[in-house]
Structure formats: C-alpha cells, structure tokens
C-alpha cells in the first residue's frame, strides 16, 4: 500500500485556484528558468491537453510565466506576472499543441536568454502540486524538484557509474536515487538525486575524472 503524507492530502501552500493547474504550473516554469540558468529574454509556452483547455480559467498561463520570472507558486506576485514580464521587457507568447503520449497537464517551454542561449523544457504537473520534468533540449529525462539533481548523458562506458559513485563517496555525498536508461540515440542517461548539495567542484571532479565519454551535464538545486 502506498504511503501519503498530510501534504499530499491537503495540497501545497500556494496561490490558487488549483494545485495542478496553478501551483504545479508555476513550479514547472520556475524549474525551467533554473535549467536555462540565464536572464530570460523571450519565451514561447506551448500548452498540451488539460493545460490547453483550462489554461486561462485556472491561471495556468500566468502561473507558468510567473515561475519563469523566478516567482514561487506561493508568492502573491504570481498574479501580476504579465505586468512584471512587460516591465522587464521579456517577450512571451502562448500556443496550444498536442505533445504526444504525455500527462494531460503538460507544457513545453521554449526559452531564449539575453546572451542568446536557447533551451527547451517539457514538464508535467502530476497532482497535489507535484511535477515531473520529462525532456530537456530533446533529451528524455525523468525527475522532480524534490532533490538536488545531476543529469548526465554519455556514450558507453562501463566504469562511469563506479567513478561517479567514488567521487560522491570521497565527498561524503549520499545518493538518494539513481536512474539509468538509454535515449532514442542509444546514449546513456544517468540521473542522480541527492539531498546534499552538488557543488561546481563536484562537477569539475566528475568532468576531469577521465570521463571523456560524457556529452552533457546538468546540475539543478532543489
């Protein structure tokens, strides 16, 4: 039998009206901005399924934009996201599109930063304010925002998990979850979630540890 906490039952502290369509939507936007890791210049928000159908009534559109502005789902400024974006000269647009076999509450966020960096993120709001990020720049992933997360994409290397685990052990970092699978291009995806902070120094140690098969590293703080 699955266990639930009291927070799963009563839902998150938030600006309403909906934990899925408002709080969850804001969390996806907030995490997408972290993934971009730069000042936002332009964003196109593509709504799927239930998000597309009720995006206006449930405040989904404004919530996603608020998250992208760095406004948390419980912040009173959430409702003013349109005005704040305009004041910061951030271009934003919306469209509706089917994104395939994904959760009904799913959005694709296409971002461009002031330095010209582009990034796309697909996330789903799965209920009670909880979310899943399922795609970053056309790389399939699967994680939420509950833990500090390290995402690696690499070609075949039988020693890579051993070497990364050794770095974590030497730095006294406990791994809470680890997932590994292959993407559509037959590359390996490794997702490590930890309650501990994964510093830039850890990333450097992993990158310099003769792991030349690594193609991509993303570090996200909870």
Model description:
By secondary structure, the chain is of the alpha+beta class. The chain has two domains: about 10-135, D-3-phosphoglycerate dehydrogenase, domain 3 (60s Ribosomal Protein L30, Chain: A, 2-Layer Sandwich), CATH 3.30.1330.90; about 150-220, Alpha-Beta Plaits (2-Layer Sandwich), CATH 3.30.70. Helix content is about 30%, strand content about 30%. It has helices at about 5-10, 20-35, 50-55, 60-70, 80-85, 160-170, 200-205; strands at about 40-50, 90-95, 105-115, 120-125, 130-135, 140-145, 150-155, 175-180, 190-195, 215-220. The strands form two sheets. Strands 2-1-3-4-5-6 form a six-stranded mixed sheet. A four-stranded antiparallel sheet has the order 8-9-7-10, with helices on one face. A hairpin with a 2-residue loop joins strand 4 (about 120-125) and strand 5 (about 130-135). The longest helix is centred in the first third of the chain and has 18 residues, at about 20-35. The two termini are about 30 Å apart. The model is unreliable at about 5-15 (pLDDT under 50).
Outline the fold blueprint.
Layout: H1 6-10, H2 19-36, E1 40-48, H3 49-54, H4 60-68, H5 81-87, E2 91-96, E3 106-113, E4 118-127, E5 130-136, E6 139-143, E7 148-154, H6 160-170, E8 177-182, E9 188-194, H7 200-207, E10 214-220
Parallel strand pairs: 1-2
Antiparallel strand pairs: 1-3, 3-4, 4-5, 5-6, 7-9, 7-10, 8-9
Helix pairs in contact: 2-4
